[in-house]
Write a structure and sequence with these properties.
The chain has 364 residues and is α/β, with parallel strands linked by helices. It contains twelve helices and 16 strands. Bound molecules: pyridoxal-5'-phosphate.
Length: 364
């Protein structure tokens, strides 16, 4: 491997493809199309490619730039726009995406106009809010009316189906009951339009619980999965599911030690605020061995989803460009120039893949 620069993130493409294959296998067993969500990894086309090689039927992002990058990289597949579109981006949505998730009549009308202008048919999935309180219709009668308007009056839109999103804002778990609610809405629409909908889109990574438990309601036939494929950690960490069939080391963050010194653990002098306007507490543990990394909040935003792979290292805090570690109990005699590895959580992944200061290396 060529000489690396730090900080960097290593992406193991083989492990990523394995995870996509594994989740896709479980989806296919119950007739579900896996949609590969790339926004967590800033839409890297090579990440999208592993999803497709692993069997995903479509690639999705909340950001059109990421979809465009994938198209420009030559990845031929269908694309889905995840974030309900801004009115100002409807023509780009039609140009770049085959499908979009929607929750506003005004936007649907604009999408229809944009599709007409471009001589295209654009597929829409109408979103129901089942309690998570992010996007989607709260009033389900209104949702059905809008679906009928799309079906009957918007010639350049195809009513593909309905969907929901759970576990993002309101932390609501996709129980079988919640998904049955979505299916009931779909079936009401189907009885009015006299045909079966193409998709009933039953959520994101958290909906994988239903696959693992074997109680996915039968008519759910699309899942949009990001974290569960790329990191494969949340369901294990927060819900205690057995994810041992997935690789949890697709992404590894590496950073270099730039200072090692013995220092007091409590700051000395009159205390004001830190670099971000907070006044944290600093337990006084006496003189301790500390290390500084050339990596900071600008690169990953928040230390809480950063986990040292090396044992007996504690992350004490960070400022914009420095991360401060307690290495008193580490037995490896760490010194300046050593490189430490970290496991990343979702938010760290979002930042480090999107930061020009963090180099990216693909390994396979
Ligand atoms: C981000 C997102 C997903 C994927 O979420 P993960 O938890 O990463 O699987 C699915 N659907 C929508 C609408 C999203 O915004």
């Amino acid at each position: 491997m060529k000489q690396q620069k730090y900080p960097c993130v290593e992406i193991n493409l083989n492990h990523l493809k394995h995870n996509a294959q594994e989740i896709n296998r479980r989806c296919e067993e119950v007739g579900i199309d896996l949609v590969g969500v790339i926004k967590g990894a800033t839409g890297l086309p090579l990440v999208a490619k592993q999803y497709i090689d692993g069997g995903a039927k479509m690639i999705a992002s909340s950001r059109l730039e990421q979809i465009e990058d994938c198209i420009n990289s030559g990845l031929k597949t269908k694309y889905l726009c995840l974030r309900v579109p801004m009115l100002s981006e409807v023509s780009e949505v039609v140009r770049l995406a085959d499908y979009s998730l929607n929750s506003e009549l005004k936007v649907l009308k604009a999408l229809n106009e944009a599709a007409k202008k471009q001589g295209k048919k654009h597929n829409v999935i109408i979103m129901a809010d089942l309690g998570d309180l992010r996007e989607g219709f709260w009033d389900k009668d209104e949702m059905i009316d809008v679906a009928l308007l799309v079906e009957n009056e918007m010639e350049n839109l195809i009513l593909s189906g309905v969907g929901t999103n759970l576990g993002c804002y309101g932390s609501i778990v996709p129980t079988p009951d919640k998904l049955e609610e979505l299916i009931a809405i779909a079936e009401k629409i189907e009885s009015k339009i006299g045909r079966e909908l193409e998709y009933i889109s039953g959520g994101a990574t958290t909906s994988l619980m239903r696959l693992w438990d074997g109680d996915m309601p039968e008519r759910i036939n699309m899942l949009r999965v990001g974290e569960g494929v790329i990191l494969g950690r949340d369901l294990d960490r927060y819900f205690d599911y057995d994810l041992s069939s997935l690789h949890q080391d697709v992404m590894t963050l590496k950073a270099e030690i730039i200072e090692v010194k013995d220092k007091p653990s409590h700051p000395i002098g009159e205390m004001g605020i830190d670099a971000f306007g907070h006044l944290p507490t600093y337990p006084d543990r006496g003189i301790r061995r500390r290390a500084l990394l050339g990596l900071g909040k600008v690169d990953y935003a928040d230390t809480s989803y950063l986990e040292p792979l090396e044992e007996n290292i504690e992350i004490l805090g960070a400022s914009s460009d420095h991360t401060i570690l307690d290495i008193e109990d580490n037995v490896n005699n760490l010194s300046v120039g050593d490189v430490l590895k970290f496991k990343v959580g979702y938010s760290v992944m979002v930042y480090v893949t999107n930061c020009r200061n963090v180099k990216m290396y693909y390994i396979d």
